[in-house]
From TrEMBL:
Gene3D superfamilies: 2.60.200.20. Residues 436-485 form the FHA domain. SUPFAM superfamilies: SMAD/FHA domain. This is FHA domain-containing protein.
Length: 529
């Protein structure tokens, strides 16, 4: 699936309101563009009014830039009503902020890169995976999920053509991820300041998570789901449970508090666990997705009216190598939460990628609680930049792994290929007929035990086709490394590729990791095998 990653950062030396917006990852080589811009006062005013309208109980007392000198009324009249009924102020404010955020981000070269990337996705008959990285902590609190091109069009997180999530690039490599066919959930109910009946709440959540929706339960490929519940565990009990069984989802409901190390989860009176501590056990036990139904899981801590960098629970977990985190931007009502969880669990059990499941559940919140209410804007999804969002393996993936099965007898008609190390005494590794995985750890097909090589560094894809009666096999190199340290030697020297797919020709030289690492030669044996 084509992916477009954008990053936003404040330019410290050119004024407090100066920012850079650039493309970190694009599905085509010339899509990596950058532009400088200034944060406009009307966006600050719209954001302040949004907080007063929708987050009066628990808003961050920070501002993304200088506030406007005069509190002029916002020009909300340009937001056209979608029916003959009068449009409420909340709906017009939400659309105004969404359209203003879109106009600030998607302008000039950034818009051109977005449009072309979306065109590539449409040409491949798939969605564009759009990931946004907010490097300025003051901007994280904004509801970027409501970005909207113009009245009448869907918000970016509700679009049928885009899968929207947030990310960060300063991350630890992904741990080894198990291939699984079932949803294995550890449900943790911690201390709740509202003093809810925990056993009743646990039974309700177990029912929602296990059964999903009526529509989902009739789905032919519906994956099984197992839920184990811990009520107010000690930190040691939680860690022991995670280490004892192979869970792929942690679901936490309870009280949370912001802090510099990912904040605190209140497991039981007097016993807490901070984000850094939780990250260590989640990444070491193979959990792919952590869901937090707790206040402020997606928000940074604040000190002296300034947001603290990389302090939100979601960011801390992603930076430590967790594949996916779903947290709330603000407090969510119990009924809204249950509606979202039910739709989300059903979508996961349909084997949808996590970002697609979030989009489907967000749509359900919109349907039930309406556009002009904040419910659908509250879930915030963070994905690791190297993670494609697969929680449960799709039944059809085996076809992708062995493409020659779709063309009977092709394996005996086409050439074979290998990678040959050019170092003294180096080895030669035959490539698989589907996907050959290259990386530092032992679960790869070609293991390169060098510190500069990522755990899952690259893949070589083999694709088969027939031209008339002639069988044709082509090979492509796909970079998956954390920092884009895959190299191809061309006529003008070594060229770095970053999350790109490039065609391979026999005789091409490759490097994985540092430019000083051992070179490899890609070779095609044209004699039929």
């Amino acid at each position: 699936m084509p992916s477009l990653n954008l990053a936003i950062a404040r330019l410290i030396n050119t004024g407090n309101d100066s920012f850079a917006i650039w493309v970190v990852n694009a599905p085509y080589p010339s899509g990596y563009v950058l532009r400088d811009c200034v944060w406009p006062p009307h966006l600050t005013q719209a954001w302040l009014e949004w907080q007063q309208m929708f987050a009066g109980h628990s808003r961050l007392d920070i501002s993304p830039g200088a506030t406007s000198q005069e509190a002029n009324p916002l020009p909300l009249d340009f937001v056209a009503p979608t029916s003959t009924q009068p449009t409420s102020y909340t709906a017009r404010l939400m659309q105004y902020l969404g359209i203003s955020l879109w106009g600030w981000v998607f302008e000039g070269a950034i818009l051109n890169s977005f449009e072309r990337s979306r065109g590539i996705a449409m040409g491949e008959r798939t969605r564009l995976r759009m990931r946004l990285e907010i490097r300025d902590p003051d901007l994280i609190a904004l509801p970027w999920e409501i970005m909207q091109r113009e009245p009448g069009q869907s918000a970016i997180s509700l679009s049928q053509h885009i899968l929207f999530s947030r990310t960060t690039s300063e991350v630890e490599p992904l741990p080894y991820l198990r291939s699984e066919q079932a949803l294995n959930i550890l449900l943790v109910l911690g201390e709740d300041e509202k003093h809810l009946e925990l056993k009743k709440e646990a039974a309700s959540l177990e029912e929602i998570l296990s059964n999903g929706s009526v529509v989902g339960s009739n789905y032919n490929g519906y994956a099984p789901c197992m839920v184990n519940t811990l009520l107010q565990p000690t930190p040691q009990e939680l860690i022991q449970q995670l280490e004892t069984k192979a869970y792929n989802v942690l679901f936490y409901a309870g009280h949370g508090l912001q802090g510099p190390d990912g904040g605190l989860l209140f497991l039981r009176p007097g016993m807490t666990l901070n984000g850094m501590e939780l990250a260590q056990v989640l990444t070491s036990t193979g959990v792919k997705l952590a869901v937090f139904n707790a206040c402020w899981g997606a928000q940074p801590a604040a000190a002296n009216h300034q947001a603290v960098s990389h302090s939100s629970l979601a960011e801390v977990l992603i930076r430590q190598g967790l594949p996916a985190v779903l947290a709330m931007r603000d407090e969510i009502a119990s009924q809204e939460s249950q509606t979202f969880i039910q739709a989300f669990a059903a979508a996961l059990r349909k084997r949808l990628p996590i970002d697609e499941a979030v989009a489907e559940a967000r749509q359900q919140l919109l349907i039930v609680y309406r556009f002009n209410q904040p419910a659908w804007t509250l879930p915030i999804l963070y994905l690791h930049p190297d993670y494609e969002g697969e929680l449960i393996k799709n039944f059809d993936e085996g076809i992708t792994e062995l493409p020659e099965t779709s063309i009977p007898g092709i394996a005996s008609l086409v050439s074979n290929a290998c990678l040959r190390s050019l170092s003294a005494g180096g080895k030669t590794s035959l490539l698989r007929p589907g996907i050959t995985r290259i990386g530092r750890t032992g679960d790869n097909d070609i293991v390169i035990p060098e510190p500069s090589v990522s755990k899952r560094h690259a893949e070589i894809l083999c694709r088969n086709s027939l031209t008339g009666a002639t069988a044709v096999r082509t090979y492509y190199l796909q970079d998956l490394s954390t920092y884009g340290t895959t190299w191809v030697f061309r006529s003008d020297g070594w060229q770095q590729i970053h999350r790109q797919e490039v065609p391979l020709q026999s005789g091409m030289q490759l490097k994985f990791g540092s430019t000083k690492s051992q070179p490899w030669e890609f070779i095609i044996d044209n004699s039929p095998g």
